[in-house]
Amino acid sequence: MLASLNGTRYELDLPDSTNALEKLVELSDKAIELEPQDQLVRIVHAWRFFVLNQKEKFLIEIEKALDLNPNSPFRIGAIGFFLSLYGEWEKGKQLLDKAMKQNMGFPSWYYGATTVYYYRLNEFEKAYEEAIKYDIPGLFWGPMLRAATLGQLGRRSDAEVQIANLKVLKPDFESKARYLISRYVKEDELVEKIIEGLKKAGLKI
């Protein structure tokens, strides 16, 4: 869990996250040594390769995590989330849909991946519907995704509120946009497509 917290600090560029990546690697190594058959441990260990942009190792480890319990209503959602964002969209979306159907209390960050799933297909109305459900106070990804979809829909005036919220939550977003988005979205063309939506919404990136 401590490895996961440090990984999140690094991925979201939170304050005082200078050594967070190193701690993620160190602690996930220690956890996998202590309990390699625990599914959460295996997911976090796989995630460290996601964070480090080591796709081959990530895919090997995430499959090991899935094999430990392919019917876990919560864990398969996390696996589907990261598989989706690393380009394994159909398999990831199937796991996310399964997790959402089986678990009424699933975390709303799942909607980050489902938003991007439809966004990449140019189904911007569906993407916006998913982005509305991404409701995590204090996190810039929600207003960022809503602004990008609204930009693609040509609803610039509606995007103004989202942009204002985004700038409050992440004042340096415009200067770090590609850097921040690519920490989760692992396809360069898709990162640029999200940037395109944000520019249409009115951001200066």
Q: Could you explain how this protein is built, in words?
A:
By secondary structure, the protein is mostly helical. The chain folds into two domains: 2-102, Tetratricopeptide repeat domain (Serine Threonine Protein Phosphatase 5, Tetratricopeptide repeat); 110-201, Alpha Horseshoe (Serine Threonine Protein Phosphatase 5, Tetratricopeptide repeat). The protein has helices at residues 2-11, 20-34, 39-51, 55-68, 75-85, 89-102, 110-120, 124-133, 141-152, 156-169, 173-181, 188-201. Helix 3 packs antiparallel against helix 4 (55-68). The protein is globular, with a radius of gyration of 17 Å. The mean pLDDT is 96.
Topology:
Blueprint: H1 2-11, H2 20-34, H3 39-51, H4 55-68, H5 75-85, H6 89-102, H7 110-120, H8 124-133, H9 141-152, H10 156-169, H11 173-181, H12 188-201
Helix pairs in contact: 1-2, 1-3, 2-3, 3-4, 3-5, 4-5, 5-6, 5-7, 7-8, 7-9, 8-9, 9-10, 9-12
Biggest beta-sheet profile: none
CATH architecture call of the largest domain: Alpha Horseshoe
CATH topology of the largest domain: Serine Threonine Protein Phosphatase 5, Tetratricopeptide repeat
- Enumerate the spans where pLDDT stays under 50 for 5 or more consecutive residues: none
Class by SSE composition: mainly alpha
Number of helices in the DSSP assignment: 12
What is the overall shape? globular
Q: What would you report as the Rg, rounded to the nearest angstrom?
A: 17 Å
Share of β-strand residues = under 5%
- End-to-end span in angstroms? 34 Å
Question: Could you give the count of β-strands?
Answer: 0
**Average pLDDT across residues?**
96
Count of folded domains:
2
- Helicity range of the residues? over 70%
Q: Multimeric state of these chains?
A: single chain
